[in-house]
TrEMBL record:
Superkingdom of the organism of origin: Bacteria
Protein name listed in UniProt: Glutaredoxin
Alphabetized InterPro entries for the sequence: Glutaredoxin-like, Thioredoxin-like_sf
The organism of origin for this protein: Pseudoalteromonas luteoviolacea S4054
């Protein structure tokens, strides 16, 4: 079950970098990819700020640019432990 949502769009090189960083901390199954072009509301909300990670449990957002350490801290807020 996904722990975070990665808001992105195809062809976005920053989104690709964000994905690569996220998979250093999370398993692929922990990341739900949401293309903002599929939803007008998401497009309006994130069109100038993608990539963005959303912690599904807390609802908090982590805006780009972010680091591996920031992702780790972001997911630890909900008690997530990769080794569980």
């Amino acid at each position: 079950m996904a722990r975070v949502v990665l808001y992105h769009t195809d062809g976005c090189h920053l989104c690709e970098q964000a994905h690569d960083l996220a998979v250093t901390v999370l398993a692929l199954d922990d990341i739900h990819h949401q293309d903002i072009l599929d939803d007008e509301r998401l497009m309006a909300q994130f069109q100038t700020s993608i990539p963005v990670l959303k912690n599904i449990k807390t609802g908090k957002l982590l805006n780009w640019p972010f680091t591996q350490q920031q992702i780790q801290e972001f997911i630890q807020e909900d008690g997530f432990n990769k080794n569980c």
